[in-house]
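3.2 Worked example (two chains)
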Amino acid sequence: MKDFILKWYPIIIAFACLLYSVGLGLTGRTEEAQYSAHWPGTILLFTIAINQIRRL
């Protein structure tokens, strides 16, 4: 279980942020939803960058 979490935690966090953004949009808070919609992509891009740096 620990290996699974260590491997997939960025995707789990990004998915949680996506659900948060969708929830905000459904409740009518569109400005907040648009702001938080960028979080999943940013989290995944930083994860890729960090993994690339670790390989060097």
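3.2.1 Second chain
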Amino acid sequence: MTRRTWIFVVLGLVFTAPCHAANPLAQAEAMIEVDRFDAALAALKTAEIASDESARRLDMALGRIYLGVGKPDRALDFFEKASMEGADDGPALAAMAEAELALGHPKKALEQAQKAVKSDGGGLEAQVALALTGTPAGRHDLSDGVTARLGSSMPDSEEVALARARIAAAANRSQALALLRDFVGGHPFAARAEDQFGKLLWQSGSHDLALEHRLHAASQLAAQGDTARAEAIRGWITAAEVMPQPAAPPPPATAVASAQPSASVLPPGEGQPQKPEFRELFPFRPKFGGSGIVLEGGRRVLTNRHVAQDGTKFAARTGLGHVRRLRVIGVDTAADLALLEADTPFPGEVGFPLARLATAKAGRRITVLGFPFTDALGEDAPSLTEGVISKETGLGDDQAEFQMTARIEPGSSGGPIFDHYGDLIGLSVASLNTAGLEKARHTVLQSVSFGVAPTAIARFLKLPPPAPPAGGAEINPEAFYQEILPCVVMIVGE
């Protein structure tokens, strides 16, 4: 019996005993703490709001859900409502500070955090908000002061330990892991701290160890009577059961790419359709985003340069929900290409084989995937559009691009373009309309989309020139969409 099988056998034994159901608000708050936002929202729909306090808790919970799914503007609305519904508005002001920070307003965030401290005195939520917003707003002294105060006060407090870890995780996950590891080692009944330790282990790729700690934390919480939080963790573990292990250590990063297909990849058009699994959260609050494709070996991601040029942190999530941190390892300014590398390979080393880079010819049918307008359209899975290559060159007969009829929108940049055989023939790069279109010198142009040409991709990755399509059976778009989900990624940056 493997360690993971043992975990889920024990999980069933631990949670077969009946327990008293928590009220919907408490259930939702527990679900939010373990990032189960859909389940939290479902619980809130059944909550009875009988007082101003329950209305405040409801609005805080809704704000936390929207903040957790990357919609800080909506979160801010609910936090503002919550601040007016209770006598103690410190926690709501602290949450407003986090939302402002996620919106890219560090000075506003700091102002809200300072208001939270004045309202809430030395409350932990206000102190954490002050530490999180101080550094981005240029007030390192405030962040350092909070960190120092928390580090010297109440060393046996689990709440303080969780606050310190949260502050540390914003800049250095390894430091947060070390803090929680030491605290849990000295406080064996600190179940919430152990669960947070497990969450960070999971984000770091140590999945088996993470499951062990989260299972142990859930069993302790159940024994302590905190059934809502225990059930929330159990639900998370059940959802994560199908998540495969991280792949073996990646090959050295000296070679940019290989022209030989990997035996471990899932070639489009072959194999069984994939199903989306548990969606991992990004390790930071995204400020911008785009799309890309995972290359063979499961570690390198190809996208547009303009997607990766302005940030200092990057991460990608596949259509199956797996997240990895990325770093930029190469750019091509002329062709608008960038190559990023994951800290660990995506599960199973699934990636698109570079031997299937093919030429782009006018008239060829194409399928384009990407993550456009995620705020409005959602980010759980990529969107698919179809069209044809309408011209083999781009604006001004640029040889590094081609023109296509498939529509792309903001967020689609870097998304892969496939032909009707499932071969990769380019990346989405831009769309043009009459607004600001000086170069085209036409006022009747409605919409034109462009892709980076396969010849430019081959030069960038140091590959042989792309060959004509291999031919054979044409793809079924429905089946192809499911098969390619492990390779298509949403890229975010900060």
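3.3 Remarks
Confidence is low (pLDDT under 50) at residues 1-21, 242-273, 433-445.
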